[in-house]
Amino acid sequence: MATHRVKKTGKDPPPFTRIANESLQDERLSFKARGLLAYMLTKPDHFRFYLDELMKHTTEKKDSIRSGMKELEQLGYVHRYAVKNERGKIMSWELDIYESPSLRPESGFPVVENPTLVTNDYILTNDKRFNKYIDFEKIQNPFFQTYLKHFALKKNKQHMRITEEQYQRISERIEELQSFGVTEDEWEAEVRDHFEKLPKSNNGNIIAFLHSAPRRFDV
To answer: Does the reported pTM lie above 0.70?
Structure first.
């Protein structure tokens, strides 16, 4: 049995990528995740990756690519972060790719500040900025409006009030899901399933639903 390799020396060597064995032999990663990382490492250092673009270069489906990317994030090979403007609005989501997790600076890991505790009836927080409520009728976000629609059908009333600060966090989470390629149809299907199975004791708050998003959308 033999391994036959392409000649990479000489006057006109073919394009090739040198990759450290560490990542490709990391047994914590599936072969799918290793292949995804290897493909991304063949691109220039400042190449911007998008889920839809990745799908054009593989036979893998969207959910498969998502799960592979999730493996890489969990083990430190990929870092996703939001790019915001001066007003704090998310403009895009970016990816940093690491050939080895050892290259990732500690400062790159997210820090959660002023965490919010969601209960069946209240949103508890120590953030004093949470005092100005949102007018639902002025919100144009189709993901949010879809949730409100199914909430009203299930509960026969309007969703409980949320503040501007809470809506900002909700919007960021929805935009993150969209950056993973979650479509409006996929969102509505999960929202519908959520309310079909929702216990009567659960108040149906969208914030609690978004906490379950990683499991629901495999992101």
So the answer is: no
